[in-house]
Structures are given as structure tokens and as C-alpha cells.
Sequence to fold (240 residues):
Amino acid sequence: MDKINRYPTDAEAKEMIVEIGRRMYMKNFVAANDGNISCKVDDEAIWTTPTGVSKGFMSEDELVKMRLDGTIIYQGKRAPSSEVKMHLRIYNERNDVMAVCHAHPPIATSFAIAGLALNQAIYPEAIVNLGIVPCVHYEKPGSEQLPDAIAPYVRDYNALLLANHGAVTWGTSLMEAWYRLESTEHYAAVIMYSINLLGKANVLSCDQINELIQIRKKMGISSGGVPSGILKPSNLTDSV
Ligand SMILES: [Zn+2]
Fold:
């Protein structure tokens, strides 16, 4: 674990999960009982969201505490989501990951339905916060095959689209995982507006991208991938 980050207490983790659930629901990243959130509280255990509950209306006593091997330590009235398998796999692939968020934000999910990765070098914040967001092939939500499909990408990236399903993000804190989910939806929206609606996007040059990657490195982030740029900048003239 990063020296700067400490594990949240059980009480802090539960409070944050309920709050992020509310934000997820209010931002229309989920409908009905979709989505799930988890947060590590020590080397072996996470708190996560229950199955069959709206993320906008959760209470702390509904959350589930589990070990990274899937054993349940505490559960209220409901079992954990079947999609928690995906979270457990991410924690087991990368021990610096402290939290995972999964939802079905409509624009990112539309890219996932089209089988398109978010990989356009058009927007500095997306390059710093995410890099590339690959789109992983379809596996049934909640299946054993879905964790296997995402595993090869967990070490090198910060977020994934799941074909015909949604998006999953992770980070060294619950806020970072949540911000990456917000950034993923924002990145998808900006690609859609510029490339698909306006029909024009000036791609950043390799040098402009490199400057942003240096910022990301200074933030201590080495994962995310680098989208490809063009040789000569095309965005240096004013338009009046
Ligand atoms: Zn899902």
C-alpha cells in the first residue's frame, strides 16, 4: 500500500460507500438496483454493496464485509452483489487498489455497446486521469468469466468498459475510483460531442500528450496507457 494512504476504518468505509452510491444514482450512472461499490479496510477485507438495493437509497447496515477470497465476514439482510467477483479479482490482481466502482453510465455504456475503447487524445484531463479506457469483450454480468476477461488489463489501466454492459474503475482510494468513473463518463461524452456530433476533433500532438503524461507520472500514477497523437500540433491557431 502507498505510504500516503491508510486504510479507512469500517465506519469511514461504510459512510463513504453509502455517499458514493447516492452520487452514482443522482448522476444517472445507474438505474434501479444497478451498480456496485467496494472499499478495502485492511490487507484481507472489503466492505461492499448488497444485491437488489438501489445505490441511491442504501443504509450502512445493508453493506456486506467480505474477505478477498469471497468469504463473508458480515452481512445484513442481503447477500453481496454477484458482480463482487469482478471487484475481488481486481484487488487480487493489484494490491495497491483500495476501491472499485462499477456502474452503467449511459454514454460510456453506449461506447461499450458499440465495442469502442475510449482512446482519443483530445482532452488533457482524460489523459491525466485515465489514459486509455479499453473495451473488454462481452461476458455475462456476474459470471465467473467476466473477472477472467478483465484480469489482463487491471495492472496497466485505471478503468475499463465492459462490452454491452457498463464501466468499472479502481483507485488507491474510494474517491479516486469514483472520480475515475465520473471521468470515464465525461471522456465518453466529450468524444461523442466532438467526434460524433460536431464531426471534428483536433487530436493533441505527441509532444502535447507527453507533457500530460509527465504530469501523471508526477502524481505517482504509472498505469493508464497513452493514446496516440499526431506529429505536428493542429490546435495552435486562434479561431475568430
Ligand atoms: Zn453491471
About this structure: Residues 34, 83, 102, 104, 141, 165-166 surround zinc ion (CB under 6 Å).
